[in-house]
Amino acid sequence: MLILVAALTLEATSLLQNFFSRRGLMEEARMRAESQLEATRLQLMDATNQAESAVRNSIWIANWCLSYPDSLQSVPYRIVENNPTVVGSTLALVPDYSRRHPLYAPYVYRDAGRIVTKTLATEEYDYPSQSWFTKPLELGRGVWAEPYVDIGGGDVLMTTYSVPITDSEGNQAAVLTADISLSWLAQLIGNSQLYPNSRELLISRGGQILISTAYGQYVRTTIDEVAKEIDDRPSFARLVAEMRSNQSGSIQIKDDGKVHQVFYAPVAVTGWSMAIVIPDNEIYGALRRARIIERIFQLLGLGMLVLILRITAKNQSKYRAINEKKERMESELQIGRNIQMSMIPNTFPPYPERKDIDIAACLIPAKEVGGDLYDFYIRDEKLFFCIGDVSGKGVPASLVMAVTRSLFRTVSAHEYSPQRILTTMNDSMTDMNDNNMFVTCFCGILDLATGHLRYCNAGHNPPIVLSENEHILEVAPNYPLGVVPKVSFREQETDLEYGESIFLYTDGLNEAENSEHEQFTLERMETVLLQRRDAQAYIDAMKKAVTDFVGGAPQSDDLTILVIRYLNEKQSDMAERHLILHNDIRQIPQLAEFVETIAVEMKLDQALSMSLNLALEEAVTNVIMYAYPENTDGLVDIEAILREKSLEFNIIDSGKPFDPTAAPEADVTLDVEHRPIGGLGIFLVNKIMDSVKYMRKDGKNILTMTKKI
Amino acid sequence: MELIISKENNVVTAALVGRLDTPASQEIADQVNDLCAEAGGTIILDCKELSYISSSGLRIFLTLRKAAAEKGGKVIVRSISNDIRTVFMMTGFLNLFEIE
């Protein structure tokens, strides 16, 4: 009976937690989708506004020009010249309006940076029958055309705004237009994917697909064509109808056996609508993993409970079996302990390949399983870490510990603020906290590049900063997690310098008791911490000191220590040197002189100086020979940054985009016959330098080469 | 950069003096063409006074070596400095040339 109740309670708690987490994750997906839809809408509004006002502001001058037909061409020219977002414009006369030009439509557009003009009044094109021309005349107002792909102009997605021009006598005389390119929009949408497999879809009022990050092959087709391939046609049809009538909202669509959430909204005055499709399993991905771990623990906890109860029951009747049962219980608890230990990082050093961080930790439960936890991982060159202590100990505490650790991983996966991580964790924990358990927790995010530490403390022992002036980290008085719903925590920050450590612990350390019931205390800890050591040595020394102090007394509480030592050497630039060359190969000796000067200044030996010279010559020759078109003048900017232990060269040119690091590596094992004559230049650069990186930025090629010294 | 070519008993000796960088390689291109014509016999590239070589210089070495392979001749590289030997090693040229 008892077990049944326990199982039901656990299941209910877990379902409740799952329900709230799902709701939270769905809310987050909705918020992210809506903010992207809004961002797209604003960008589009900006672009369409610019085109509309460019055209409107020119109506009066177009009107005036009607009396001087030879000056008509200046109207579209002015529009293109003064509006960088407008790629082309025309002023097309109504057929036979002018006796001199029965058909007249000069089209002014940008071509490779220049503004050129051609005529649209050709027999093949027949502009008077095009919809951009007929629609505004028919409706008597400005009109956005259905977007189209401009095949001649490099497959660019374009759209046109056209207004009718009426002369002083009220006759329809011409149509004035402005074309804007939407290629930036495709890029913007493509670059801001919300989830790894989310898809974006922009459709026009006519149902034409303008931009799609998934249905690439359909770009020149309509949404109705796509609909034929979707499994759940009724829902998709509803989505299409909603989008075409410019509604916003969300809908669930099944396709390919998977459920997708689709968020949609109108994004432009032009009647376009955008949808963001997110697979369900990506929204709930993190939760599912957390659920599995949680399940293991629930089963384990129940298993243990069954065992304990059985043993208790049998104790009364069968004393003989006591030892056997006890052993079994211990072995079950041992398995529980192993599982608990495998939930926290337990391989040290955890990042042997990294020189900038040194971490060590230990967790010693007072009973087989405990309620202490720590965790850390690196994401985006930031170390996320936490230490926590669940109230109570043993099996109940261990279950809460497992949930807390899963929550930390789930929540921190999308956050960069310790305060927000703890606030979200607290919200989930107060939601499901029927047993009045609480957790003290310290959460930090250390920027490994700068040593900047953001942290938030929820009622945990303040950590100790091990530096020249060792001190206790100042922490704000926040509640522990799971106590007060909807409370907000205060975040703080500090900076770690090279070699400084942060020493985190649970009260099992300072409150460890010896047989006289004296406590270990912070003072005793500090004597151990006086000496500078690496992370593991701090742990070993502290463990030894506390074991010696406690002696034979039984361990009264779980004991956890986490030490994070920051070892990033912030290199300061010592000096910078510059050389600017023309794309003339005869200037190479100047480069040699430049490198020689730096080598002397940095006291480099002859061999190193020569190889640097070689690498620089190869990289710069490459630019001189190939970056600029033949017989045009271009510059190569060579920038040297001298550091204590390294030399960095940046080679910058504004020629055509070229990534030398993408070239295949030369095969230097081939024999004379098969060996190609070229290809050694970049090969040598790669051989000599420790790192070679290419970047295209602001229309420039930047090759960055570094050599350790 | 100077390329001094001398001929004795069917053996052509070409002494490279100075830095063989990209502009220098372009300067001596004509002389190298003349040398290629002699690739049927033995060509000694004397590198005693060669202080620097870049990939365009290596191209010249390889062009001569290819011409010799085609015409059944021989190219010997003589007295290279340690620095240049390192470049030869990196590029696998040590295996392509007879080095004295």
Textual characterization of the structure:
The complex is a heterodimer of chains A (709) and B (100). Chain A has 709 residues and is an alpha+beta fold. The model of chain A has no long low-confidence stretch (mean pLDDT 85). Chain B has a single domain (2-99), classed as Transcription Regulator spoIIAA, CATH 3.30.750. Chain B is built from four helices and five strands, in the order ββααβαβαβ. The mean pLDDT of chain B is 92. The interface between A and B is medium-sized, with 30 and 26 residues.
Mean pLDDT score of chain A: 85
CATH class bucket of chain B: Alpha Beta
Quaternary state of the chains? heterodimer
| Integer tally of domains of chain B | 1
Which band does the percent of strand residues of chain B land in? Answer: 35-45%
The strand count of chain A comes to 27
Low-confidence stretches of chain B: none
Our count of helices of chain B gives 4
- Name the biggest interface: A-B, 30 and 26 residues
Please tag this protein with its features:
heterodimer, A: 709 residues, alpha+beta, Beta-Lactamase, Phosphatase 2c, domain 1, 4 domains, 7-stranded antiparallel sheet, 5-stranded antiparallel sheet, 18 helices, 26% strand, globular, B: 100 residues, alpha/beta, Transcription Regulator spoIIAA, 5-stranded mixed sheet, 36% strand
Question: Layout of helices and strands, plus pairs?
Answer:
The complex is a heterodimer of chains A (709) and B (100).
Chain A: H1 2-56, H2 59-65, H3 74-82, E1 86-93, E2 106-111, E3 114-119, H4 131-139, E4 143-144, E5 148-150, E6 156-166, E7 172-181, H5 183-191, E8 199-203, E9 209-212, H6 223-227, H7 233-244, E10 249-255, E11 258-266, E12 273-279, H8 280-283, H9 285-317, H10 322-343, E13 357-364, E14 372-379, E15 382-390, H11 394-412, H12 418-432, E16 439-447, E17 452-458, E18 464-466, E19 471-472, E20 491-495, E21 501-505, H13 507-510, H14 521-529, H15 535-550, E22 559-566, E23 573-582, H16 588-601, H17 606-626, E24 635-643, E25 646-653, H18 680-688, E26 691-697, E27 700-708
Antiparallel strand pairs in A: 1-2, 1-7, 2-3, 4-6, 5-6, 6-7, 8-9, 8-12, 10-11, 11-12, 13-22, 14-15, 15-16, 16-17, 17-20, 18-19, 18-21, 21-22, 23-24, 24-25, 25-27, 26-27
Helix pairs in contact in A: 1-9, 1-12, 9-10, 9-11, 11-12, 16-17, 17-18
Chain B: E1 2-8, E2 11-20, H1 22-27, H2 29-37, E3 42-53, H3 55-71, E4 74-78, H4 82-90, E5 98-99
Parallel strand pairs in B: 2-3, 3-4, 4-5
Antiparallel strand pairs in B: 1-2
